[in-house]
Amino acid sequence: MGCSPSEQELYDRGVKELRSGNYQESITYFDKVIEINPDNTEAHNAKGVAFFEQENWDAAIASFKTSMEKDSTSYKPYLNLGNAYLEKKEFKQAVINYNIASSLDPNQTDIYYNRGLALLGMEAYEDAILDFDNALQVDPSQALTHFNRGKALIGNNNPEEAINSLHRSVELDDQNGAAFYLLGVTEMSLTNTKEEGCMHLKTALKLGYTGAKEWIDEFCDTAS
User: Fold this and answer.
1) I need a surface site. Which of 41, 46, 87, 224 has the fewest CB within 10 A?
2) HEC profile for the chain?
């Protein structure tokens, strides 16, 4: 018995494999932990993370739910459940779990961005904008947050502020073709700034965003 690895040693090995990207191997270790102690909430949660990384959303959800049942005071399985539901585009369930995670640990500011994405998926634009604003207060340099804030502002009929957000997004990340495309389309269709819109659409096309070509062909001088 003294030669057998302990519960903690097995868990640590699983975490090591998880961090190395050896997801199936990590699950094997977490299963051994759970065999020794079915109530090890961290092992269930970590097993869910391994399934999540394999894009096996349903298996991940099952493990996160078991972890939550074993310890309903930890924010981690709720946050991870929210992320899995977000990947499945089950936005309402995602928001429910993000809300619980946030109530259990209000300092978990990573929740803001992901909950904002779920709210955006639900077309709850004002609430999404609030979450993106909170995320940007923590870190104003998040290009994707500015991009998705721009989407929410468009949905909320605020094209001028949306353009400001999208400008900030492409300033921070000049390789996001989708952001240049949305910026160009918004400028052309909602604020009638054709020259700038065409410039941004052409940048989007150069970056491989092929959806920009139809707009360029119809509305822009393709000789330039």
Assistant:
1) 224
2) CCCCCCHHHHHHHHHHHHHCCCHHHHHHHHHHHHHHCCCCHHHHHHHHHHHHHCCCHHHHHHHHHHHHHHCCCCHHHHHHHHHHHHHCCCHHHHHHHHHHHHHHCCCCCHHHHHHHHHHHHCCCHHHHHHHHHHHHHHCCCCHHHHHHHHHHHHHCCCHHHHHHHHHHHHHHCCCCHHHHHHHHHHHHHHCCCHHHHHHHHHHHHHCCCCCHHHHHHHHCCCCC
